[in-house]
């Protein structure tokens, strides 16, 4: 339903006179001029320029890498990082793209340090250090251009931490449940932290990427627990975490999170049913049942989410 149709319905339902109807129309902003199209174009051009500059720098360094000594290599990476940080602080219109280049350069510098000196650190420690040192860059940029890769770095670091403390492998049994539970909590903290940013309402993509990465990691862990010889506790744990997240997203009215979490819950339930049917050596009737349940869950999820969004629109 379009905004025009909603305005007509509200006007008729409330019995508004002409003056009140005009005031409602003015408050809705339906007759306001369109927003400035140049703002997203500038932002997109800045992101593209930052990516091309960074990619060109990588190609140039790769082509001349053998000609540089160790000191020269460190100096070059540090110089690029320093120049981008200074430029981001001085050139306000280009702050976000320059902060993105600086954040990526920081990751390259840390990776080169780890390869050069062979510190023996685990990969998750590199990502943790990258996220910690890059947090001020992302915070100062006040843009999703820097926050989004930062969220990906943190999500990757959490996954690597679970793999490391789970015995340097993805084992799904009772002994690794505490590790996976801590990882699930860390993913939740990441999502909540990004949602509490001052500019999260106007720039939601970093939060959305964090939610998507968390849903993929948690549901993947739950599926791993389901596919073991005996269903591991990770399946129930992951399904419960997804369910709690879905309830919270429902209460907050976050359609993106509701959609991702509902799809994850539906997938876990359908695959769990498939496991039961396979264990019972079900025939074609079992396959039909799986398809029927999958269609029913998907239809119910979409219907409930749409109903929730309409209720929120009416309340607003």
TL;DR?
By secondary structure, this protein is mostly helical. The chain contains twelve helices and no strands.
Walkthrough of the structure:
The longest helix has 32 residues, at 284-315. This protein has 3 domains: 1-33; 46-120, no CATH class; 124-316. It is flat. The chain is an all-alpha fold and 316 residues long. The protein contains 12 helices and no strands.
Uncertain stretches: none
**Strand segment tally:** 0
Q: Please state the CA-atom Rg, rounded to the nearest Å.
A: 25 Å
What is the percent of helical residues?
Answer: over 70%
Sheet with the most strands, sense and barrel status: none
Structural class: mainly alpha
Given the structure, what is the number of helices? 12
**Residues in β-strands, percent:** under 5%
Residue-averaged pLDDT? 84
Distance between the termini: 15 Å
Number of domains: 3
Principal-axes shape call = flat
Element string (H = helix, E = strand): HHHHHHHHHHHH
């Amino acid at each position: 339903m379009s905004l025009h149709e909603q305005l007509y319905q509200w006007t008729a339902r409330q019995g508004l006179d002409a003056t009140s109807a005009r005031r409602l129309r003015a408050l809705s902003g339906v007759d306001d001029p369109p927003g400035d199209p140049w703002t997203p174009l500038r932002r997109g051009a800045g992101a593209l320029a930052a990516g091309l500059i960074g990619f060109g720098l990588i190609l140039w360094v790769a082509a001349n890498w053998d000609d540089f000594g160790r000191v020269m290599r460190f100096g070059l990476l540090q110089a690029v990082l320093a120049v981008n940080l200074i430029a981001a602080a001085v050139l306000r219109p280009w702050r976000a793209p320059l902060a993105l280049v600086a954040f990526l350069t920081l990751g390259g510098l840390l990776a080169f340090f780890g390869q050069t000196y062979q510190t023996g650190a685990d990969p998750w420690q590199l990502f943790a250090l990258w996220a910690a040192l890059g947090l001020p860059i992302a915070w100062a940029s006040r843009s999703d251009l820097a926050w989004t890769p930062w969220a990906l770095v943190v999500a990757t670091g959490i996954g690597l931490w679970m793999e490391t403390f789970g015995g340097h492998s993805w084992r799904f049994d009772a002994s690794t449940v505490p590790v996976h539970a801590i990882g699930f909590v860390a993913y939740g903290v990441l999502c909540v932290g990004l949602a509490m940013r001052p500019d999260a309402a106007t720039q939601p993509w970093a939060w959305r990427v964090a939610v998507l990465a968390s849903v993929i990691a948690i549901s993947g862990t739950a599926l791993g627990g389901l596919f073991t010889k005996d269903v591991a506790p990770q399946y129930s744990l992951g399904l419960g975490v997804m369910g709690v997240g879905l309830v919270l997203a429902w209460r907050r009215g976050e359609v993106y999170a509701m959609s991702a979490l509902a799809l994850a819950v539906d997938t876990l339930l359908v695959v769990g049913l498939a496991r039961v049917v396979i264990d019972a050596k079900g025939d074609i009737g079992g396959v039909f049942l799986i398809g029927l349940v999958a269609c029913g869950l998907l239809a119910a999820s979409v219907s409930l989410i749409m109903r929730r969004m309409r209720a929120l629109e009416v309340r607003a």
